[in-house]
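Dear colleague,

Thank you for sharing your sequence with our group. We've completed the structure prediction you requested, and as agreed, I am returning the results in plain text so they can be pasted directly into your records. Please verify that the sequence below matches your submission; if there's any discrepancy, let me know and we will rerun it promptly.
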Amino acid sequence: MEQQDAIYKKADGIATLTLNRPNKRNALTPAMFEGIYKAVEDATKDDEVKVLVITGTGESFCSGADVKALAENTSRQSTEERERQPRPRRVMFSVLLQKCPKPVIAAINGVAVGVGLDLALACDIRIASDKARLTVGYIRRGMIPAGGATFFLPRLVGIDKACELIWTSDMIDAKEAERIGMVTMVVPHDELESATRELAEKIAKGPPQAIQVSKRAIYEGLVTDLETNVEFTMNIRQELLKSEDFKEGTTAFVEKREPLFRKGVAED
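Please find the predicted structure tokens below.
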């Protein structure tokens, strides 16, 4: 990654992607978008990764897209495409995050604006610093949210509140975001890292198969009917009954101890 504008690290089953342009309020450049894609793809494929955390450095989580950098990149591409075929357009990161089987936590350390808010909303859980502030932002530029806000906000805060947030683009503080359901929880700024780590470690200790398929069931349930969703989860249940994690979970319950989960399916 150029100048380490995005830092990706893995330790103890937790992958962390840190947006690292504090002097630019972590505004996203093309290279940073690419870094998000690569991080999610790696976390998806790496069996050792149980949870992905996304956060920022400095006073901002992400202030949106770096319009100047995007324009310069587009200009370069228009010249270079004479010499080679342009790359196929990649799926939006919000779709990639939802399809990622691993739980994704946003640790919102500061301002989240526009596509930066889209990024936070696309995560499964959002822990916000009490210094965080959030706004949809797009309408103030004569633009529509196109990174997931129109999908996630109505489901998180209700249709009428989503309309208000999108149409006014008012900036709201972390407590208000928590009150309306935009963020999962708010913690003191100095405790954001430890609170996020504590939750990530708790999830990472859980049964990976059951957690990953439950994430899939949750999101498919948003776009399917009850009967289809129940049928889907019942089929998954039959597979989980064969897993080592199920055996360990039931054994630990009987033995009155904490389970030690591993990924794997028992031999027939």
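Summary note from our side: Confidence is low (pLDDT under 50) at residues 85-89, 264-268.

Kind regards,
the structure core
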